[in-house]
Amino acid sequence: MNPFTYIARPARVLFGAGTLQQLPAEVDRLGARKAIVLSTPEQRASAQQVADLLGTRAAGIFDRAVMHVPIETAREARAFAASHGADCAVAIGGGSTVGLGKAIALESALPVIAIPTTYAGSEMTTIYGITEGGMKKTGRADQVLPRTVLYDPELSAGLPVGLSITSGINAIAHAAEGLYSVTTNPIIEIMAQQGMEALGRALPRIKANARDMEARSDALYGAWLCGTVLASVDMALHHKLCHTLGGSFNLPHAETHTIVLPHALAYNAAAAPEAMRKIAQALQGSSAAQAVYDLAHDNGAPVALKDIGMRETDLDQACDIALSNQYPNPRPLERAAIRQLLQDAWEGRRPG
Ligand code: NAD
Q1: Residue nearest to atom 4 of ligand 1 (CA)
Q2: H/E run at residue 314
Q3: Domain end marker among 156, 190, 214
Q4: Residues 73-83: what's their mean pLDDT?
Q5: How much is the pLDDT for 40?
Q6: Are residues 283 and 139 in the same domain?
Q7: Does residue 167 share a domain with residue 104?
Q8: Are the C-beta atoms of residues 245 and 256 closer than 8 Å to each other?
Q9: CB neighbours (10 Å) of residue 167?
Q10: Which of 151, 207, 230, 284 suits 321 as a labelling partner, its CA being 20 to 30 A distant?
Q11: What is the pLDDT of residues 117-130, one digit of tens each?
């Protein structure tokens, strides 16, 4: 076995249907007295449910979380927390809402309790992102890591099927790249494989019945494991491409991951055969790239960048941006091949 470094992050995780009910005790456990509740406008009702549960421990609801955490929203939320005397934040929602919690914690060190309702995995990471002047800046800081995470599958039952599939494949992307990461290790490999297996099993069942609680539970468990992989080891070409496409061309996060992943895996296939074997095995396919493509396609997710708003004329620029910084990847970054990868993803071709 090769030498490795494994870092365990100190989050406390409560998992299971009905776990939300333990929230007031978890606020007390942090020594906090007043929690601001964060959500998107669409999830205002869930935020209200949380505030009702918190009763006198609720300092107020800030329901203006949006994708990519604009700096103006972060400032408003920080001011709202301060003016309402909050000493803790509860973020209920997906990566956008958890991201807003992190933006508050970055400046104020307010502890965050995350209640994830998608499979994006942000709640497990020390990575934050804030968008200013059209540019998303990301960084890492230990203080933004949520102190407590409540994974309650009942709360993801309302996640629309389309977003459930793409968000689940977003999680699979963390695990897939974790397996061939330069910083991977045997513990992370176990989590990556288990996470992909759980999601691979769950997504078709969610497609068949969005309220299948066993499947929702498996998917959320898989998302947790995949989020831990994202938090622990360096990502490669796939995440770089998705960051470029999302940040520079304003493409939706989970859909972009879903479309690009099969092509990023095809690009790296020959350079990382053992990782590909494990991905294919976890997803019960004969090739990693095809197994991911089929998981998306067969469950009604988009498979072509042209169908989610990407213009063909922007592919050259996307390629330039993706190549502008060097970073570790199993196969060296080759311009012509990456340009072809983007073309294949734009057209939605099944990898050969
Ligand atoms: P999201 O948080 O933007 O949510 C998408 C939409 O779905 C929102 O309108 C939300 O309110 C709604 N929604 C979420 N859960 C729901 C539910 N259970 N029922 C009904 N509606 C629900 O989407 P996301 O994909 O979770 O997060 C994407 C963002 O998170 C991106 O900005 C991405 O960069 C960031 N992210 C960050 C990290 C990190 O480690 N920092 C990791 C993953 C994603």
Answers
A1: 94
A2: none
A3: 156
A4: 97
A5: 98
A6: no
A7: no
A8: yes
A9: 31
A10: 230
A11: 999 999 999 999 99
Give 165's contacts (C-beta < 8 A, 6+ positions apart). Answer: 203, 206, 207, 258, 295, 296, 299, 300, 301
Q: Is 153's C-beta closer than 6 angstroms to any atom of ligand 1?
A: no
Do the beta carbons of residue 161 and residue 207 sit within 8 Å? yes
For tokens 């039952």, name the residue.
157
For residue 45, the one-letter residue type is A
**What mean pLDDT value characterizes the chain?**
96
Ligand 1 contacts CB of residue 146 (under 6 A): no
Residue 323 in tokens: 């190549």
Give the C-alpha separation, 143 to 184, whole Å: 24
Q: How many domains does the chain have?
A: 2
Q: How many residues does the chain have?
A: 352
pLDDT tens-digit readout, 164-193: 999 999 999 999 999 999 999 999 999 999
Task: Among 37, 38, 40, say which to mutate for ligand 1: greatest number of ligand atoms within 8 Å of CB.
Answer: 40
Average pLDDT over residues 209-231: 98
Which helix (H) or strand (E) is 92 found in, with range?
A: strand 88-93
Q: How many CA atoms lie within 13 A of 199 on its CB side?
A: 36
pLDDT confidence of residue 334: 96
Domain of residue 98, CATH code: 3.40.50.1970
Same domain? 336 vs 193: yes
Closest alpha carbon to 348 in 311, 306, 304, 315: 304
pLDDT at 134 exceeding the cut of 80: no
Q: At 244, which CATH number?
A: 1.20.1090.10
Does the beta carbon of 121 sit less than 6 angstroms from any atom of ligand 1? Answer: yes
Global pTM reads: 0.97
- DSSP calls for 199-255: HHHHHHHHHH-TT-HHHHHHHHHHHHHHHHHHHHS---HHHHHHHHHHHHH---HHH
| Co-location of 261 and 133 in the same domain | no
